Amino acid sequence: MSEPMTIPALPKQKPEEKTRRIPPYNVILLDDDYHTFEYVITMLQQLFGYPREKGYQMALEVHTTGRCIVLTTTLEHAELKRDQIHAFGPDPLSSKECVGSMTAIIEPAC
Q1: Is 19 part of any domain?
Q2: Which residues contact 9 (CB under 8 A, 6 or more apart)?
């Protein structure tokens, strides 16, 4: 009969560290009846660097659905971009009484 064999204990492994991701947030542009497509396109070009075609597509989406996600980013960057939209100023091309900027909100991205 053979003697029992002793197996050395395995070294304890550290639990894997999980990388926590910063939760993303959407900057959402809301529709109104006071700003022209040209205003929205120009604003998106200047604030986000989008080409004219993408600005037009987003302006059309805002117009038809009432809202459009213009950027998904960190909370701090989303707050900055929302504030820049709010500070962009009134639409000089609007035939309606436009007294201010468009409205944007921030929501957690799902």
Answers
A1: no
A2: none
Residue 48 inside a domain? The answer is yes
CA distance 18 to 15: 9
Q: Using CA of residue 31, residue 36, residue 42, residue 47, what is the dihedral sign? A: negative
Q: Which residues of the chain have pLDDT under 70?
A: 1-2, 7-15
The pLDDT, as a whole number, for residue 65 is 97
- Contacting residues for 54 by C-beta, under 8 A, at least 6 apart: 44
Q: Which domain holds residue 84?
A: 25-108
Provide the CATH number for the domain around residue 104: 3.30.1390.10
How many Å is the Cα radius of gyration of the chain? 25
